[in-house]
Specification:
This protein is mainly β and 424 residues long. The protein is built from 3 helices and 20 strands.
Length: 424
Amino acid sequence: MRLTRGTGGAPRVALAAVLAAGLATHAWTAAAEEPAAPMAMSGFYGSYDLTREGSGTSWQPESTPMSGLMGTHGAWLGMADAFINVIYDDQGGPRGAQETFSTSMLMLMARRDLGEGAFGLRLMLSGDPLMGRSGYPLLFQTGETADGVTPLIDRQHPHDLLMEAALTYSRNFAHDLSAFVYAGLPGEPALGPEEFMMRLSARDNPEAPLTHHWLDSTHISWGVITAGATWRELKFDASAFNGREPDENRYNIEVRPLDSYSLRLTYNPSRDWSLQGSYGYLASPEQLEPAVSVRRSTFSASYNAPFAQWWQTTFAFGHNAPSSGPGSNAWLLESALRVAGAHTLFARLERVDKDELFREGEPLFGMSFTIEKLSLGYRYDFLQLRSVGLGVGALVSTYSYPQALNASYGYRPTSFMVFVRAHL
């Protein structure tokens, strides 16, 4: 199986990052996706268990098992997590395509107590730019551009090489009360659920959700300052950030004004639940529509069931109200179940309004269509090398949409992916 143009170095580079993270921290204890024991260390933003921490300043259910590596050095607590997927992708129908590519992520975090508070460092990198600016085939996916001129349609854009570089500081005022600040270039503002690459209910699925641009597309924002407070099971955070999504230059660092804002309230009523509601104003999020701003509202609920090794489910809703044109909705329900040590089952159901499926000049340009998608998948981990696990998996997707799209997409095409995964 030959890798397509632009992907040749990606598997080698990203796999090297996974292996390097494992070897460099050989003295650390590998969580390896096993249920975590109660943590002695508090989180980055308050005096709750570290397992409550999600991406950026988001929360997840506190009973979520930790993955990757963890260890201490003096006053520092360090964490590393990484994965690489090498994927063969076959998107069906007339507008589908076949391609082999890789996706990857390396996350490093460190935390130490500092007086009555805590100081933290967060870094996240991705080898996605090596797949090329046009990303990978994904039916009905829209958003961003590969050349700064034409939109990406039926393709998922790659992530930037630098996904997060952030500093955090929190200050405890009582056992259950704290305040915190987070600053990132890039960073993730207080808007939407935990990003899909890090959500336990989504991370085994190798394809991005169609609802990405209604829920968590701001997870790479070039300029973020967030302030917030936690009290017992409640967290409130607010962000000033740059609302423009990353451009097609995936290796650069962009310094932009903080022209957007967001507010989020999160409630964890028990160790197994995490609920969030958020609202944001995004100034000119799309490069090709600079005059259009968006008001985004989201709600999500994640539940980590005390069943098998772990079983996490997320329900999420997002609404985009652009300054020009009608609003649109997106719904997501996804779940992943880990059983018998090496077997993971996952599923995702989505319903989303899409009005960017055709380019200017085409008969259906600008029309909105409701797309429904169901994906089912499985992963088997067949080998553990020190701290690195190796697995194989597959998923299949089917769609439902209005008859007006049959001429372009065919009648209910089927898509599938097969993949090899290395992970800490």
